[in-house]
């Protein structure tokens, strides 16, 4: 070990960036360089004898590390602490690493400490910058995450909206097709009704005069027979041939039954016109029973007996209903869908159960059409039921969904009930629901507000 040459020590002591001092074990300054003195704004002479940590501490507060320094000094051990201060211009904060090393006179006796401080501002600044950068990057990450999440959920929402819109469009398209079919059927029916109306009216109007004319002719024959009673074999032979007696009796009956037929034709023509009522864009007063009857008439060909089953019985139970304000054509469309479904269900179960004509005759296929007023007289209730196979709960849950069908491809589109519910609920403010158990048939109930 050799001492530093005096010039080196001098050169070090003169460096403006180095704080150098010598203290005793109580922390009192024994010597300090100019840099130390400049920091404290005291002269070197004034500094001597003062505790160094009082000099360092700003505004005469205790240094945070004071207790630690004291303990080290008492124990005779070295100490190190970091220390922040403001330079003269007060602009930037600087950092010093203060290093106190005991100076031993001999192996055991320590009477002095050297104090040397090096500037660690750059390192500190780097640490602070790093910390700031880290927290900034964390912040950015968090923000990015939030934005990505927001954007993702916005995109998901948009996708869902687009899917919803597409679904609605498809539904609308299918609905339009159905409505168009119904209106095409309506137009056809109303055309037929119109065309048969004229000849039927002509027949109805002429039957009574024809009957009167026949009566007149008979009375004329009577008169001839009275006035010209001489026997003429030719006339007699003709009377025998045409069986005048029978003809006289039968002709009025024949005309009556023609009249009945014509009446029936007139009824059918009226029903057809009721069914095909082209829908106005505002509700009209409508007789529900006429609507039901005309729809049943349109479906007559499907109810009729055929080679595999007898006629489907329609059991009507009509209550006393007022006219109701509604979209008549659309209500007929609902009746049509419900009745067609009931017929489909009955036919399907006949086939599935393998019932013969005779089996079905003994246990007839039936459709019930029942109407009544609700207890509070505010609603019309229409029940359309069948004694078909009924529905399993999982089917019943879906029947009002668009495109839900259990029928074979090409047989059902799965739109009937969805459209029916839309017409009843959305167009008329009513309700449509179904009661059904497997093997117990099905009943659809329409609730329609009056007026
Ligand atoms: N009376 C009923 N008895 C048993 N099941 C029925 C009855 N009515 C409807 N369903 C069931 O509800 C399903 C949906 O009926 P919906 O009328 O909506 O469609 P669809 O009859 O299958 O087809 P579409 O009416 O479009 O031709 C039917 O496929 C059937 O499974
Ligand atoms: Mg249907």
Low-pLDDT regions: none
Q: Got a strand count?
A: 12
Inertia-based shape: rod-shaped
Within CATH, the superfamily of the domain at 285-451 carries the name Histidine kinase-like ATPase, C-terminal domain
Mean pLDDT: 88
**Class by helix and strand content?**
alpha+beta
Main β-sheet, in a few words?
5 strands, antiparallel
According to CATH, what is the topology of the domain at 285-451? Heat Shock Protein 90
CATH class of the domain at 285-451: Alpha Beta
**Rg calc:** 56 Å
Q: Give the oligomeric state of the chains in this entry, treating copies of one chain as homo and distinct chains as hetero.
A: single chain
Total number of helices = 14
**How do the strands line up in the largest sheet?**
2-1-5-4-3
Judging by the overall fold, what is the CATH architecture of the domain at 285-451?
A: 2-Layer Sandwich
Topology pattern, helix = H, strand = E: HEEHHHHEEEHHHEHHEEHHEEHHEE
Distinct ligands: adenosine-5'-triphosphate, magnesium ion
**Terminal Cα separation, in Å?**
118 Å
Strand content: 15-25%
Proportion of helical residues: 40-55%
Features:
alpha+beta, 12 strands, five-stranded mixed beta sheet, binds adenosine-5'-triphosphate, Beta-Lactamase, binds magnesium ion
Summed up, what is this model?
The protein has helices at about 5-15, 35-40, 45, 50-55, 65-75, 120-225, 235-240, 245-275, 290-300, 300-305, 330-355, 355-360, 395-400, 415-425, and strands spanning about 20-25, 30, 80-85, 95-105, 110-120, 285, 315, 325, 365-375, 380-385, 430-435, 440-450. It is of the alpha+beta class and about 450 residues long.
